[in-house]
Amino acid sequence: MANGWTGGQYSAYRVVLAATLVTQFGVTGWIFAVPLALGVADRPAAVVCAAYLAIVATTANSPVGHLLAAAVVALHSASPGRPYGSWGARKRADPGSGWWLPARVHLAARGLLALTVVLVAAGTIESPGALWLPLALLAFDPAWIPAKREGAPVRLFYDGECGLCHGAVRFLLAEDRDGQGFRFAPLASESFARAAPAEVRAALPDSLVLALQDGTLLLRSDAVLESAERLGGLWRIGARAARLLPRAWRDRVYDAIARNRKRFVRRPSENCPVVSAELRARFE
């Protein structure tokens, strides 16, 4: 059974799981949370963590919480390694690399969630507290929140001399699962010159510009949130939540990051990110 989990969304889940371990188990949680959050030797760490929690459960006053945490962490050890957003996925030519969450892991998370709900409702066990969040999140299917699509792909124009902008492009390449959501071109390209007259281009920011199918140009935070909505899943949920904030506030944050982007992120050697030949077809 297919599901909508992508590498980037799973990496976000991995951070939530790591934070939950810290919340539930303090210093001990930190030992296992760091490799989980970074995606460095995270699956071996998950195996050791699950075993440790299972052993501790034999002497704990409330063993159910430890056993449930062990089961949730064990599910991570059964997932494929190096999803987008993990340390091992840095700089690879295909950012997404065809990562997928096995159906057995997803179904196991749903079964574990259902069992926990039944046992809590029956009064057999106490509520697992913060563990509800990673458990419910992994049982969720991002495919339930479809990507926003309106015909042809939208075009994202980006600063080819900005490492952070290259990172944004790689993120979209990784998370645009079917490859039909976006096309890309540098702001200095002929494609952008055709999309906007010179007088319009002169007034635009020099970071990211999103061109919709009808020719509308979205700027600053609107461009970021529209892009996230066109990925679907958790990204669309996050974008819809962020739209509750006033645009002026969102743009202020965007502008602050844009002003300093070249100070903290190294300038790339080429205008286009280093990607595989197949992904090159998405650039204009």
Overall residue-averaged pLDDT value? 90
The span between the termini is: 35 Å
- Our estimate of the beta-strand percent is 5-15%
Enumerate how many helices there are, as a single number. Answer: 12
Q: Strand arrangement, largest sheet?
A: 2-1-3-4
Strand count, sense and closure of the main sheet? Answer: 4 strands, mixed
Structural class: mainly alpha
Order of helices and strands: HHHHHEHEHHEEHHHH
Low-confidence stretches: none
Helix content: 40-55%
CA radius of gyration is 21 Å
Counting DSSP E segments of at least 2 residues, the number of strands comes to: 4
Shape: elongated
Brief summary of the model shown:
It is built from twelve helices and four strands; from the N terminus they run H-H-H-H-H-E-H-E-H-H-E-E-H-H-H-H.
Describe this structure in words.
This protein has helices spanning 7-38, 42-57, 63-77, 103-121, 132-139, 163-175, 190-195, 198-201, 220-229, 233-242, 247-264, 277-280; strands spanning 154-158, 182-186, 208-211, 217-219. The longest helix has 32 residues, at 7-38. The protein has 12 helices and 4 strands; from the N terminus they run αααααβαβααββαααα. The model has no long low-confidence stretch (mean pLDDT 90). Helices cover 55% and strands 6% of the residues. The two termini are 35 Å apart. The protein is mainly alpha-helical. Strands 2-1-3-4 form a 4-stranded mixed beta sheet.
